[in-house]
Design brief:
Elements (H helix, E strand, L loop, with lengths): L16 E4 L5 E10 L2 E10 L2 E5 L8 H15 L11 E3 L5 H4 L2 H5 L5 E4 L4 H5 L1 H19 L3 H13 L11 E2 L6 E2 L2 E5 L8 E5 L2 E5 L21 H14 L5 E4 L8 H22 L6 H8 L6 H19 L3 E3 L2 H6 L8 E3 L5
Parallel strand pairs: 4-5, 5-6, 6-7, 11-12
Antiparallel strand pairs: 1-2, 2-3, 3-4, 8-9, 9-10, 10-11, 13-14
């Protein structure tokens, strides 16, 4: 099974794309290379007296350079009043580094107010603490997944690598505190991919961050790493979004192509996870660790994708275990151990 990741470079990677909402809001899609070969979209939105940036890129490598170039392109080709120094607000869709890491660069050129959901506030303002806590939980997860000590150390270093240079930035407001709305922008909390993930609705346009993407199913990790993530929360959030979205005609994600039929895309993503859950349940007719499940689901992965594959597999195993579909095959060894050991899961005699 191929691991679904937003790593491909857009065919229009150097081009700013223009969209317009049904009520005349102007939207500029700015592509930036967040990490080598990994592209993300930033959106500049001009509506009423608001000049809003939705997400910021990673701040890594050429990311800030691409953002500055995109802003200059909009200024020269569309509106001379555009600029980082003219921004009124920066809205962060979720607390992953490729979406907020450019904040220190922007802060040096802008007095715009920064907003994020409460559950991702620490990601922006206390990165060192968050890295320490998640690294401890990640180490235990990997140990129980069956990963050996040296490999665990390598994977944790990979996890930390792109986050260590980020300089915390103050946040001016959080979304729930302002009633999940800022002027014409409305937010819906959709935890799963990230604890504080939101989607943002403006007229008939939805900015989906990484909650809904074209062509790929957004990455999932087990909730044991970060509360309010996990596959169960994610699937519930898809349902909540479907009821809230209304007459959305265009969905713009943090990666990949625009989505013109949101409902169909939501059904497709549900289908991906249902199929993956069925495969995990089939694999676990015999006892296996999460790392063994991952090796069966995702072949030929390397570097950071190894960690993503383990987390994705762990999220699906966790979902089935929480719902009584799986049991622990080596429970006696677990009870006799003084510390974490590899856990072997096995499907119980229950229908999935």
């Amino acid at each position: 099974m191929k691991l679904n990741l937003a790593v491909s470079q857009p065919t229009t990677s150097q081009s700013v794309q223009f969209f317009e909402s049904e009520r005349g809001a102007r939207i500029f899609q700015i592509p930036v290379e967040a990490f080598p070969g990994f592209w993300v979209y930033i959106y500049l939105v001009l509506v009423d007296d608001y000049q809003v940036l939705i997400d910021t890129g990673s701040g890594f490598g050429v990311s800030n350079e691409h953002l500055a170039h995109g802003m200059e392109t909009v200024k020269l080709q569309y509106d001379p009043a555009v600029g980082l120094d003219h921004l009124t607000h920066i809205l962060i869709t979720h607390g992953h580094i490729d979406h907020f890491g450019g904040l220190p660069f922007i802060r040096a050129h802008s007095a715009a107010q920064v907003g994020v959901h409460e559950l991702d506030l620490r990601n922006l303002t206390n990165t060192e603490e968050r890295l320490a806590i998640v690294s401890l939980r990640l180490n235990r997860f990997l140990e129980e997944a069956g990963i050996r000590p040296q490999r665990r150390k390598e994977l944790i270093q990979i996890y930390k690598l792109t986050k260590l240079d980020y300089v915390p930035v103050p946040v001016d407001f959080t979304y729930e505190r302002i009633g999940m709305a800022l002027g014409p922008f409305e937010m819906l909390h959709v935890p799963g991919h990230c604890a504080g993930q939101v989607v943002i609705r403006l007229h008939d346009v939805l900015f989906s961050g990484d909650h809904v993407l074209a062509d790929i199913s957004p990455h999932q990790a087990p909730e044991r790493l970060v509360l309010n993530t996990g596959l169960g929360h994610y699937l519930d959030s898809l349902t909540n979004l479907e009821g809230w979205a209304g007459d959305i005609s265009l969905t713009l994600g943090g990666h990949n192509s625009p989505i013109l039929d949101l409902k169909t895309r939501l059904d497709e993503i549900r289908g991906v996870h249902h199929e993956r859950l069925a495969k995990v349940a089939a694999i676990l007719q015999e006892p296996h660790t999460v790392s063994e499940v991952s090796a069966r689901l995702f072949e030929h992965v390397h570097g950071y994708n190894v960690l993503l594959a383990l987390e994705e597999s762990g999220a699906h195993v966790e979902y089935l275990y929480q719902r009584g579909i799986l049991g622990i095959a080596n429970l006696d060894d677990l009870e006799a151990s003084d510390g974490p050991i590899p856990i072997y899961y096995q499907a119980l005699d229950m229908d999935f």
